[in-house]
Design brief:
The structure is a homodimer.
Chain A lengths: L8 E6 L11 E6 L5 E6 L7 H9 L7 E5 L8 H19 L6 E5 L9 H13 L6 H7 L8 E6 L4 E7 L12 E6 L5 H13 L16 E6 L9 H21 L7 E9 L2 H12 L2 H8 L5 H8 L12 E4 L2 E5 L2 E2 L12 E7 L5 E8 L3 H8 L4
Helix pairs in contact in A: 1-2, 2-3, 5-6, 7-9
């Protein structure tokens, strides 16, 4: 269902031979209208892949007819030749769809620094176009997987309108988004300005706060396409709320399928002086390898949490800070509280609460533990 | 030899029972003069351990008679009671030495959040005082080890004067120093202002650029004590040069014994707009888990290097940047150059050269790879 759940969208996913190990690798999502309003956000990494450089130009006018996505190659640091592959991909899709290349977003994921085979990509786009279907969402979601173990899809239902989304993630999950490709569709009738505002709000508090391994990708894209096929215009509040819920759903699915992870860690920072400071503290803890390795070992090592908090510029008094793990307050006013032994970290879900006692703001950051499987998967990726 | 190599110093290392697994755990280094000038730098973590809070007051007047160091407990986040343990430790050492507690530095390392047993520490100080010897350097260097596999010592020889040092490190090695305790002695005749200037220069380009795992400790201390027993006053340039070489020697020893590491990575950033930007780039790469895991797998994945560089604010053009690994240029002007297969990463030493083509500054940052053993050691530390 996912991206083809809202009316006005067709999709497909096919195998073109881009992946050494085989499997679907090219996806196509088409907005059949009547509207083709769109918005998108991209990686904040200054090393941007060719498809990101291309798609940033496409989104400028707020009109998108289709999205081509491929796994099996990031098309990043591949120079002018790589940019030409992206451009030719958009031209090819546009010619099949009778639209303009400048209305075709392109997204790629895979190894950085290898040229993408244009012949294979073109073959994939031709095949995907032939297979476009109103229930093609699952095939599309499958074709964008890399080390993901399963496709990620989500649907949010409004009053007579809906939102659908698909995502791929797995590794390199970090702020400013990360090897994360997300396509979201809706049949609500909204203009590109409204879509942009809603998307920026939703990603700021969901994908931007998923920091699995602190590594920021070169290819991240979250695109939102609106067909207006429902003929209904929800209020911006209604739509943003539903979109945020859908993004959180997809973000959680990415976290739960992060490369090699054994724990899904929710870091909730409360009573901070500002939301930004709460995020800064959450992110510092989320990126602390010693804390992450301790969680892998089911070790409630709260000292490593406080050592990470101490590296931030956030307002807090080292002697008025509380830390709880899975509901057990292990540190109170910067001193040991309940014994470590009373914390059970054997489950996959782990909740870390940091009370800064410095204000009334709050933020939640999601991460994963640091495991043997993470090291294994990422030490053998390109070989 | 190490800290007892320069004239005017005695040291000892003894077992007091602080470590669950046994072994020496309390060290004492005493400056017998005639001068007791000193300087020290500490962690920039805002969560500072009690011995750091204490020692920052001790160093204020530039006079240090002795340093007490213990492994087996960090005495951090242990509240007023923990501070009292540090204070009492200094008082006890001072009473034995006939000096003032305010001239005794205290350094601790081990688990955060556990109270340190004052009775055991006091016993250790008493014993160490009884064993003070002119060749006690090795015992002292041994007593400060935690997960270090061997003691770290170094000596630098001047014209009639010398410098000696000992260090412990292993994990939590990161900028602003990290669970790293270093005591350096010299028989050169220099005042505390000269020592401070020399020490700040030396640590800035050595220990501060060792970033093994991005985790900043709460306890780091580097202390420099000068006895003037040689009667010789080298120029500040001579002394700083020798001190920097000694610090680099110790930093390299820490890197080579970092927890679980299989590769020692030297990241050399050249042709940057400023030294600060070169350090920023080097550190971003040093902290990128995907790059570090790739090195563990002997995989010359330069795309991960450029993705990490892209997260910085340093001046560079993504299409005018070169990357070399062990002398092989794998990326040139942001595109693939020599084939990955021509890079051999099977040795322990790995050299990464990043040419930003943005200026004429340079900096070197040292780090380690991310390995199964790192995850193992740090997932089982407190259990």
């Amino acid at each position: 269902m996912s991206v083809t759940h809202p009316r006005g969208f067709v999709a497909a996913g096919v195998e073109s031979g881009l992946k050494g190990k085989g499997g679907k690798d090219v996806a196509l999502v088409v907005n059949q209208g009547p509207s083709q309003a769109a918005a998108a956000v991209f990686t904040s990494n200054r090393a941007k892949a060719n498809p990101v450089i291309w798609s940033q130009q496409v989104i400028a006018d707020g009109i998108v007819n289709a999205v081509v996505l491929n796994s099996g190659g990031a098309n990043c640091y591949t120079g002018a030749r790589g940019f030409q592959v992206t451009h030719a991909t958009a031209e090819h899709a546009a010619s099949l769809l009778g639209s303009s290349a400048t209305d075709v977003l392109v997204c790629s994921t895979g190894l950085i620094g290898d040229q993408l085979d244009l012949q294979k990509v073109s073959f994939g786009v031709t095949a995907a176009h032939a297979f476009l279907r109103e229930d093609g969402g699952l095939d599309a979601a499958t074709a964008i997987m890399t080390t993901d173990t399963h496709p990620k899809q989500a649907v949010a239902q409004g009053e007579g309108w809906s939102i659908g989304g698909m995502a791929k993630g797995a590794g390199m999950l970090a702020p400013g988004l990360a090897t994360m490709l997300v396509v979201i569709t809706t049949d609500a009738a909204l203009d590109s300005g409204q879509l942009d505002a809603a998307l920026r709000h939703a990603t700021r508090v969901t994908f931007d706060r998923l920091d699995s391994d602190g590594a920021m990708s070169t290819n991240d894209t979250v695109a939102l396409l609106a067909s207006a096929a429902s003929g209904i215009s929800p209020t911006i509040e209604e739509f943003t709320s539903a979109l945020t819920a859908l993004c959180e759903d997809l973000a959680t699915q990415l976290q739960q399928d992060a490369e090699g992870a054994a724990h899904d860690i929710t870091i909730e920072v409360v009573n901070s002086a500002s939301e930004d400071e709460a995020v800064e503290v959450g992110r510092a803890v989320a990126r602390n390898n010693l804390f992450k390795a301790a969680v892998f070992g089911n070790d409630p090592n709260w000292g490593r949490v406080l050592a990470a908090v101490g590296t931030t510029q956030a307002a807090f008094d080292p002697y008025d800070i509380d830390v709880s793990m899975n509901g057990v307050r292990v540190a109170h006013k910067g001193e040991p509280d309940q014994p470590r032994e009373s914390v059970d970290l054997t489950g996959r879900a782990m909740h870390l609460l940091i009370d800064l006692h410095a204000g009334s703001s709050t933020a939640t950051v999601w991460t994963n533990d640091l495991t043997h499987d993470y090291v294994h998967e990422n030490s053998a990726y390109s070989s």
